């Protein structure tokens, strides 16, 4: 439990070591330009917009830490937010673990954020932090589903897949990031759960421990830029923000 005699400190880990092949060949996804600025810079700024965040650790490609560090120092943050870049691992879980290892013992709350979600509103970031500070060991922002979901019996690509069930849509949520955690809980999850044991995100690792995870409202602009069409949508959202909100 945090020491009640000192302020609760919050850090963010942003794994940015992935190649992002679905977005097409070329530059790693996190370094793709969005409105003339790398997506990673937008993602870092989105986290730094919260006054509760005092430290951001970016986990770069194993051989790209110097390049990422140079890039981020060309786009400085407000003085209240410290920035650190560390080299990542071969998998996302390894990269998050390396980011967690870089956090000082004075950190109590940690957020893990996808670099490919560059436009998360600060209200979403603050809602996650508040829920963790209020006692939840793990918190995810999420949205209700708009589409019906079918469970299928997977088949080789291009082959029709038999439907085996239709989950009740009202009980499902599409999860986003940043996901927030009590730091000790997330470290225990990464140290305990082996990658590939049914968990596809950090909250899933905590679930595998048997610890509770709660949901707070997400935001439609916190979508993940994974495919070329997502990039078109992100450009449109960014252009609207720059025209109406003075966003840089």
TrEMBL record:
Pathway per the UniProt entry: Isoprenoid biosynthesis; isopentenyl diphosphate biosynthesis via DXP pathway; isopentenyl diphosphate from 1-deoxy-D-xylulose 5-phosphate: step 2/6
Keywords for this protein: Isoprene biosynthesis, Nucleotidyltransferase, Transferase
A molecular function (GO) term: 2-C-methyl-D-erythritol 4-phosphate cytidylyltransferase activity
Catalytic activity, EC: 2.7.7.60
Domain of life: Bacteria
Nucleotidyltransferase listed as a keyword: yes
Site (Transition state stabilizer) location in chain: 22, 29
First-level EC class: transferase
Catalysed reactions listed for this entry: 2-C-methyl-D-erythritol 4-phosphate + CTP + H(+) = 4-CDP-2-C-methyl-D-erythritol + diphosphate
Its biological purpose: Catalyzes the formation of 4-diphosphocytidyl-2-C-methyl-D-erythritol from CTP and 2-C-methyl-D-erythritol 4-phosphate (MEP).
Name the record gives this protein: 2-C-methyl-D-erythritol 4-phosphate cytidylyltransferase
Organism: Streptomyces mooreae
């Amino acid at each position: 439990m945090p020491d009640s005699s000192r302020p609760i400190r919050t850090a963010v880990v942003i794994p940015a070591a992935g190649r992002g092949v679905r977005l097409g060949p070329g530059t790693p996804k996190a370094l793709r330009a969005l409105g003339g600025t790398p997506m990673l810079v937008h993602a870092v700024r989105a986290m730094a917009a919260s006054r509760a965040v005092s430290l951001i650790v970016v986990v770069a490609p194993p051989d790209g830490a110097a390049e990422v560090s140079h890039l981020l120092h060309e786009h400085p943050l407000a003085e209240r937010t410290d920035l650190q870049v560390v080299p990542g691992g071969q998998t996302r879980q390894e990269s998050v673990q390396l980011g967690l290892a870089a956090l000082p013992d004075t950190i109590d709350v940690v957020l893990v954020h996808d670099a490919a979600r560059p436009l998360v509103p600060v209200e979403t970031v603050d809602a996650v932090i508040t829920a963790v500070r209020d006692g939840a060991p793990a918190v995810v922002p999420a949205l209700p589903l708009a589409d019906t979901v079918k469970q299928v019996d997977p088949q080789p690509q291009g082959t029709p897949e038999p439907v085996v069930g239709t989950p009740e849509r009202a009980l499902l949520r599409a999860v986003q990031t940043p996901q927030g955690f009590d730091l000790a809980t997330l470290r225990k999850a990464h140290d305990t759960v082996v990658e590939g044991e049914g968990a596809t995100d950090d909250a899933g690792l905590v679930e595998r421990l048997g610890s509770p995870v709660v949901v707070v409202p997400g935001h439609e602009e916190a979508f993940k830029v994974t495919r070329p069409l997502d990039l078109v949508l992100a450009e449109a959202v960014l252009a609207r923000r720059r025209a109406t909100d003075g966003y840089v």
